[in-house]
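note to self: dont lose this again. the chain is below, predicted strucutre after it. 185 aa total, dont forget to put it in the shared folder this time
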Amino acid sequence: MYWENSLSLCSFSPRTAVGSRLANKQLGWKFCDADDYHPKENKEKMMNGIPLDDEDRIPWLCALHEILMREKSFGENVILACSSLKRMYRRILTGEQSAVNTTVTRDQEQSQLGYSNNILFVYLHGPKELITKRLDSRKGHFMSPSLLQSQFDTLEPPEGTENFINISIENSISDIVTEIERHLG
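---
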């Protein structure tokens, strides 16, 4: 089985557990947790219960895009655990949208940023109550569980022409991993 380039797990929870298991144990791909790349200012805001806005997220997303493109240039496959809550955020990750100038043509964007249509977004979704329970039990993470509602308010689930699959987090981690592998098959 060969899947060129990247998977991005876009969700609230349990993207890190799914991504690391899929990357390390199942596929042998590189795993990156987008949370590790947040600048100190973003982490401090989230620790203090202050939601991030586009101005906070876009430089972070651009850095993640660069990581994906670098790994692609090395011929590496990558799984990125990233919330990518908005369509615009997912377009930045793929290089379809410039973070600087959203009026440039698609050809210009692709040449400026590097473009990859080989990114599959895995939308892990579930009931707010389950996500709240999991966030409340999480220890040592900088994001305050009080920010969950702001993330739901920001959320634009993948749809239409986006390259994605939907998977419920009500399934076990093993079942989620199996479903992703089946799709990549």
